[in-house]
Amino acid sequence: MRKKLGIIIAVLTVVLANSWVAAQVGPGHPDRGEALYKEHCLRCHGRMGEGDGPDAQGLIVRPVDFHTARSRAKTDFELLIAISNGVLFSPMHSWRGRIADEDMVHVIAYVRALAPEYPHL
């Protein structure tokens, strides 16, 4: 009985702690993300997020075009992981330690504004 109680307490602690941590990062603000995007992302991803920035021409692996269906289908979490950790076998390097996590969320909000998941027809 004590073992079951211990397991239940451990599971509840993990669930509540994860919920608390997830709640600490609110939705991003596209206006804040725009300045960060222009400073850190525009040179590869381009002004409108189409992967056509001035540095993109010299890259073997082209930067992502945020307007493609595949890119728009990615979750915010997937985008956060790509920004934070970089993308294997691509020139997209890790921004962890260079940009605060909260700022990454703002950049994602700006990318969503540039290329919404469900664009208006």
From TrEMBL:
PROSITE patterns reported in the protein's UniProt record: CYTC
Organism: Nitrospira defluvii
Signal sequence interval, chain numbering: 1-22
Domain Cytochrome c: 28-115
Protein's name in the database: Cytochrome c domain-containing protein
Keywords: Heme, Iron, Metal-binding, Signal
